Amino acid sequence: MLQAFWLAVQFLTRLPTPSIENADDSQIGASVQFYPLVGLLIGVFLIAFAWLTQGFGSLVQAALILTCWVMVTGGLHLDGLADCADAWAGGLVSKERTLAIMKDPTAGPVAVVVLILTLLIKWSSLTSILAEQKYSILLAVPIVGRLTILVMMLSTPYVRENGLGEKMQQNLPVDGARVIVFIGSLVCAWILGFTAIAVAVFIVWLLRRLVMHRMGGASGDVYGAILELSETATLVAVAL
Q1: Nearest-CA neighbor of 148 among 184, 117, 176, 121?
Q2: pLDDT at position 193, please?
Q3: What is the DSSP code string of 63-105?
């Protein structure tokens, strides 16, 4: 289980981890259970950084924290959001066309616009939150984002054959994942409020409906997009 935890940290962040060798499929699946815990780790890192940047003014502090947030995760989920944005704009013809565009490493103008708007909304929401020194929000929002990946894996087929996400979903301990989603949601609702969690649930429901209609399931890029959009929507809900 410890190795599964380090696999989750290694996959979702750019934080240093012990060397991991010969991870089998069961450990890859088990690592998904630790995604919310990795979100907690990211949240602790962000709170520590917020404490170090106190007195910078909320505008500058929000920009620095957002930069730190992106660097810790390596922009992994933003990349998924960008791929989904391009695929949604250019893949109207078919599921195959949508998946092909997602796999293309280049980013089109739609992806750039979506990324700019997402980061802008995150920054402006953080500015409002930090002005009131609500640092606990930084702890919970990364957890919410990673809980949404668990929810998608539990509820939505994976559409790419022989992908890493397929191994994760097939070997995910379902009962344990459900308990983690339930407990994690209650903890985040206690910190953020039930309205913010309701907004995150709505985002997951809406995006799941869209991907099921277009592709018949999810992919790794979809997981990244849902994480980013649920984090953004949760920040906006809390800021408002």
Answers
A1: 184
A2: 93
A3: HHHHHHHHHHHTTHHHHHHHHHHHHHHH-TT-HHHHHHHHH--
CA–CA distance, 164 with 167 (Å, rounded to integer): 5
CA angle, residues 116, 119, 121, in degrees to nearest 5:
105
Predicted model pTM: 0.92
| Rounded-to-integer distance, Cα 223 and Cα 76, Å | 10
Query: By three-state DSSP, how is residue 167 classified?
Result: helix
Phi, psi for residue 24 in degrees, rounded to 5 = -95, 175
Amino acid letter for position 62: A
What one-letter code names the amino acid at 214?
Answer: R
pLDDT value, residue 189: 94
Distance, in Å, from the CA atom of 67 to the CA atom of 75, rounded to the nearest integer, reads 10
Among 228, 34, 230, which residue's Cα sits nearest to residue 119? 228
- Residue numbers of the chain with a pLDDT score lower than 50: none
Rounded to 5°, the CA angle 105-78-213 comes to 80
Instruction: Please state, in angstroms and as integers, the Cα–Cα distance from residue 224 to each residue in 21, 56, 138, 195, following that order.
Output: 25, 31, 19, 23
What tokens does 101 get?
Answer: 């565009």
CA distance 158 to 219: 6
For residue 68, count other CB atoms closer than 10 A to its CB.
18
Q: Rounded to whole angstroms, how far apart are CA atoms 63 and 196?
A: 22
Q: 181 near 128, Cβ under 8 Å? A: no
